[in-house]
From TrEMBL:
It comes from Citrus clementina (Clementine). This is Fe2OG dioxygenase domain-containing protein. PANTHER family: OXOGLUTARATE/IRON-DEPENDENT DIOXYGENASE (PTHR47991). The keyword GTP-binding does not apply. PROSITE patterns: FE2OG_OXY. Keywords: Iron, Metal-binding, Oxidoreductase. Belongs to the iron/ascorbate-dependent oxidoreductase family. Pfam families: 2OG-FeII_Oxy, DIOX_N.
Length: 365
């Protein structure tokens, strides 16, 4: 198979948004200016609904009485079916660890460009510093700097990309990733229960799960109406865990009923979303939802995103228990590694990557 042609963004002053802000603080280069249909105002943007996206209290699932557990499982099912997103509180990850990972992430992005360039995101990869999902020279760029690393299993790591500065970066990320991994395993047990499946269903199916982290830094933007911080997409993972930096601007928006709904951060909560993998396994009952990031004129934003997915060797498809006459099979069986490769070698375009998994009818071929 011929390699996928790539045109990676060269990390330099022209296309690194932090450097742009230093050199020409009021200018938006054409490469970042979106077409009219893609701009943040292209679809209606709702005010945050009362209460916002659903909130799940993990301690009620782990330690609550019968009624609390039952109610929270129903809340989880509703969140996954109707929103594809929820915020989890009482998640068990220490507050000081959340603060520490934010600090080392921010400290990394504040390093001189020459230091960050030691960890470049190479062509056709999604690890390192730069912009991922860029495949053509005329493709619009996101108003964002990214730093991404493979974490588990160890063979997906590229040790040369783990930074020497700040000095505590690697140790903090190891501890944080271990705790987030436990959280994902725990949440997937309750997702399984909410579907009427045995708690260990996903853990047994996934094998040694793949885990990666991506840190996103969005500097203030002089014209937030013209750019996107991150293009609309759904995640290829099973679950995604998002930590939004304290004091950051409200940047995450999810597409619900053809309207972009902003997600108001709850202090010390984590935002969880269902990925494409869970949509396929549940035959569309739980949905991966399109989301994007917008920018702010005066405030910056930091986010730390963990992706949790099955082993690359696993074959996936709708679970038989969730296929019936009322919900016929929507997706084919496929190798998860092949889907992952498909996902990272295509630009972010809403839910277009899901076409890889959909059963094609004669009318659509």
């Amino acid at each position: 198979m011929a390699p996928v042609p790539t045109f990676p963004v060269k990390v330099g002053q022209i296309d690194d948004v932090q450097e742009l802000r230093k050199v020409e603080p009021s200018t938006i280069p054409e490469r970042f200016v979106r077409d009219l249909t893609e701009r943040p105002s292209s679809l209606a943007t709702a005010l945050s609904p009362p209460g916002g996206i659903p909130i799940i209290n993990l301690s009620k699932l782990m330690k609550g009485n019968h009624d609390e557990f039952h109610n929270e499982i129903l809340n989880l099912a509703t969140a996954c079916e109707e929103w594809g997103f929820f915020q989890v509180i009482d998640h068990g990850i220490e507050l000081n660890l959340l603060e520490n990972i934010e600090k080392v992430a921010k400290d990394f992005f504040m390093l001189p460009l020459e230091e960050k360039k030691k960890y470049p995101m190479l062509p056709g990869t999604v690890q390192g510093y730069g912009q991922a999902f860029v495949f053509s020279e005329n493709q619009k760029l996101d108003w964002c700097n990214m730093f991404a690393l493979g974490v588990e299993p160890h063979f997906i790591r590229n040790p040369k990309l783990w930074p020497a500065k700040p000095a505590e970066f690697s140790e903090t990320l190891e501890t944080y990733s271990r705790d987030v991994r436990k959280l994902c395993q725990c949440l997937l047990k309750y997702v399984a229960i909410s579907l009427g499946l045995k708690a260990e269903t996903f853990e047994e199916m996934f094998g040694v799960a793949v885990q990666a982290v991506r840190m996103n830094y969005y500097p203030p933007c002089p014209r937030p109406d013209l750019v996107l911080g991150l293009s609309p997409h759904s995640d290829g993972s099973a679950l995604t865990v998002l930590q939004q930096g304290k004091g950051s601007s409200v940047g995450l928006q999810i597409l619900k009923n053809n309207t972009w709904v902003p997600v108001q951060p709850i202090p010390n909560a984590l935002v969880i979303n269902v990925g494409d993998t869970i949509e396929v396994l549940t035959n569309g009952r739980y949905k991966s939802v399109e989301h994007r990031a917008v920018t702010h004129k005066e405030k910056d934003r930091l986010s730390i995103v963990t992706f949790y997915a099955p082993s690359y060797e696993v074959e996936l498809g709708p679970m038989p228990e969730l296929v019936n006459e009322n919900n016929p099979c929507k997706y084919r069986r496929y190798n998860h590694g092949e889907y992952s490769k498909h996902y990272v070698t295509n630009k972010l375009q809403g839910k277009k990557t899901m076409e890889f998994a959909k059963i094609q009818t004669q009318n659509s071929t």
